[in-house]
């Protein structure tokens, strides 16, 4: 008996280790850009160091102005002003260089992170994508990585700059006046404690904001991609409510985060300016007693202001890092997700396959849809080049069976062999390179027709693309467009009709030239004219290939060399159309039932015409 699952809480001691681990992983992406980082840090040192000089010069300027009353020699005053202008110019130049270098490094790191995340997503199995909404995944690619980018590009530059200013400012505070420094720095532990306490809550709420936005984006993506269904069911209000509810959750979380940030900003402002007021009061008493000059007090106030602003900025940076840690946690969750289709350490070669496919006592279940297996005890072999039709009622397991061939899923029991080799021993790329798929719902990408056909074999020439289009009965309608092969098809190919999309998909499969072909109800959603054109193209596509055909119209598979009849995940009949019709059973029942429906449908169409004729 398995132990009950417990809710695991992260102890305070474990959280810093996890935070450090995330920062260390982010740092690994920055490793190729260490020269940029080093040069940026050097510029930061010069820029921040020069900024620490001018408060002292301001103090000297004050003393030169007010302690030399009646002295007409302005030379010292002029020299100090010129020196200040030079320092400001150098500081600005180094600051601009530092900002560019660190921003460039941050943008490079984030670009690499996005590429790594997207590349990793492409390695995950269909089972993973069935369990995750597309909107949530795109949110992690965009919003979460964007949050990390803000920290790596901007906050990192500020962190180095403010750190130099803080250390240098504290040192110069003590050099200027040790007594005033003790009074000023007494507030820093309060500032740090506030930042840590509230910052942790900000990070937790930031994660909630990111999760809520991702969920809302997922709902929006579903509604937008299925807008025709939404509008056909007049479900606009329902989708507005669903999206609005998700936005409301994110809004409340964002409001809580804003309250925490406002609380932190208010506390920091009070502590900072309250400390300055106390310093000014105490420093004024020091000036009156003659312990320091007015210029020294002004210099000290500038240094204290720099330190106060730096501490406040560091708390803001700390908040940004907390948000970035929440976002990077969601990113690394994806990067740590492993495919349930493990690759063989030493995959077998599959360079020129014959296309023999064998199922050896194969069973399969999804694992999350109940205990009943989808496929049970499948045991059959398909010789190279044979056309096999899969027939059966809805839910019999036909699409699941063909989905095992390109290894979208792994068999639960038994073996699936290609040319005598278990598909689990082959490299996924090699296996799928020799398997072509033309599904019922054709997906075209939002480029041109030429680009979509070329997807089958990116290195093909224009002549080969056109040859594939001709074989797919697509060339004539393509050249009929004003832009020909450069016609943009729109998202998911919405600018083309269903028959046109299918023929482009067939051309794509022809260009790929696979040894094993899967046709999953490729003509089910087409009208008669389009179906005839597509069927003709499919017959050309099937020549010389091992082909698995799923067809809802049994009349289209009568010429198949072999028909497998499935029911409840098992093969209950195997033969040609003639032998199966002669032996009776499920195939004959399905065929005759479909024939009767077609006859009844034709009669229904004739009745209004006959009625009109009678009138």
Automatic annotation (TrEMBL):
GO terms for biological process: oligopeptide export from mitochondrion. Residues 357-593 form the ABC transporter domain. It is a multi-pass membrane protein. PANTHER family: ATP-BINDING CASSETTE SUB-FAMILY B MEMBER 10, MITOCHONDRIAL, ATP-DEPENDENT PERMEASE MDL1, MITOCHONDRIAL. The chain crosses the membrane at residues 33-59, 80-101, 151-174, 180-198, 262-284, 296-318. One of its GO terms (cellular component) is plasma membrane. This is ABC transporter transmembrane domain-containing protein. It is found in: Cell membrane. SMART domains: AAA. It comes from Deinococcus sonorensis KR-87. InterPro entries: AAA+_ATPase, ABC1_TM_dom, ABC1_TM_sf, ABC_transporter-like_ATP-bd, ABC_transporter-like_CS, P-loop_NTPase, Type_1_exporter.
